[in-house]
């Protein structure tokens, strides 16, 4: 299927690895001019090379910390007429309420709520004026089914979700969609981190930790980054113009709720 995205421009945040890199690769394959982002030059350039090998198109690499005003502006200046914005950032570490001081809360809100909101604020008017825009926020399954220990991530991302639902109504009239992708147990470095945490807590091997995690998934396996990325590319497509304000879970069928 031709997704109708040739010659569109896309900003994909936090894309030097993991889900961000996978989404950048999928969009690049569709002929999109992709601007990838990361805080460190070397990993970002390495990701650009991998994306070029996989897609035949080299993305533009923008070294910037999107949790800062300066970093966001650098990214916007590199691609001021982005038709696609994929918001993504590393989540805060798990913990307990008593572990999180004010600084921890501010850091989580800056990275996982305010940074994407401010990027949307900067780019949405241009998308509406050009009558095409696709905004995708990579959030978390925890937004719909909060788990113990994930309060920082859940709170920040739920705030982003609420704001985006609110503004999606007006944006839709100008062919700008705003959707959220909710990953759970996609096989990235984040899952390795969670498995390593289990290893330390339970005194088990990596294989045992991964097996335990897989057993919590209805599909009994980890999701592939490419599966997630292809869903992202479709949500950005011309064909997906009537899908907006939604939370799409990519979790191997694990969510137990009805809505």
Task: Please provide a brief summary of the model.
The chain is of the alpha/beta class and 259 residues long. Helix content is 47%, strand content 14%.
Kindly list the characteristics that best describe this protein:
Rossmann fold; 259 residues; 8 helices; 47% helix; 14% strand; globular
Descriptive account of the structure:
This protein has 259 residues and is of the alpha/beta class. It folds into 2 domains: 9-186 and 224-250, Rossmann fold, CATH 3.40.50; 187-222, no CATH class. Helix content is 47%, strand content 14%. It contains 8 helices and 7 strands. It has helices at 18-29, 41-55, 69-78, 102-130, 151-172, 189-202, 206-215, 225-235; strands at residues 9-12, 33-38, 60-63, 84-87, 133-138, 176-183, 247-250. It has a 7-stranded parallel β-sheet, with helices on both faces. Helix 1 packs parallel to helix 2 (41-55), helix 1 crosses helix 8 and helix 4 (102-130) runs parallel beside helix 5 (151-172). The chain is globular. The mean pLDDT is 96.
């Amino acid at each position: 299927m031709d997704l109708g995205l040739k010659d569109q421009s896309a900003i994909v945040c936090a894309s030097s690895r993991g889900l961000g890199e996978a989404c950048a690769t999928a969009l690049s394959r569709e002929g999109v001019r992709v601007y990838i982002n990361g805080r460190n030059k070397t990993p970002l350039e390495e990701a650009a090379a991998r994306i070029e090998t996989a897609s035949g198109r080299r993305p533009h690499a923008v070294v910037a910390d999107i949790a800062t005003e300066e970093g966001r502006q650098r990214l916007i200046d590199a691609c001021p007429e982005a038709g696609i914005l994929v918001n993504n950032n590393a989540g805060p570490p798990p913990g307990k309420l008593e572990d999180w001081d004010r600084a921890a809360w501010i850091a989580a809100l800056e990275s996982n709520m305010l940074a994407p909101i401010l990027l949307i604020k900067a780019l949405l008017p241009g998308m509406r004026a050009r009558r095409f825009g696709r905004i995708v926020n990579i959030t978390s399954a925890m937004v719909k089914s909060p788990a113990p220990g994930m309060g920082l991530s859940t709170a920040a991302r739920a705030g982003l979700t609420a704001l985006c639902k609110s503004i999606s109504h007006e944006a839709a009239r100008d062919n700008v969609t705003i959707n959220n992708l909710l990953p759970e147990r996609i096989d990235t470095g984040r899952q390795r981190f969670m498995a390593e945490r289990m290893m330390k807590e339970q005194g088990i091997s990596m294989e045992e930790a991964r097996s335990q995690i897989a057993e919590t998934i209805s599909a009994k396996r980890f999701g592939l980054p490419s599966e997630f990325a292809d869903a992202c590319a479709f949500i950005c497509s011309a064909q997906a113009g009537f899908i907006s304000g939604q939370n799409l879970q990519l979790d191997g069928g694990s969510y137990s709720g009805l809505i």
